Backbone:
């Protein structure tokens, strides 16, 4: 598998493959399996920012579980405070919670 981008988080080959699988599952609306795969990946590395971000995306966009999405984005921001994508996504889902 050739990586068309810089592997900023130094992910293993299997992590990259599983992230790609989870993203494909989300696009195909196979949300339960995407969730299971991402949660399994998180047990192997609880600080993996791409996994945490994808879980935030899954819970916010696909499952409308906004509190859970915000929790995952909070975890990303605790590890990487300058992560603009997580900060913007967190802000988007907070709007639904604070109504």
Residues:
């Amino acid at each position: 598998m050739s990586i068309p981008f810089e592997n900023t988080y130094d992910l293993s080959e299997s992590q990259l493959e599983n992230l790609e699988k989870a993203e494909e599952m989300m696009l195909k609306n196979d949300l339960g399996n995407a969730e299971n795969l991402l949660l399994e990946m998180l047990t192997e590395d609880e600080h993996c920012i791409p996994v945490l971000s994808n879980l935030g995306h899954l819970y916010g966009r696909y499952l409308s579980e906004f509190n859970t999405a915000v929790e995952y984005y909070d975890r990303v921001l605790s590890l990487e405070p300058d992560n603009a994508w997580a900060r913007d996504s967190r802000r988007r889902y907070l709007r639904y919670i604070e109504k």
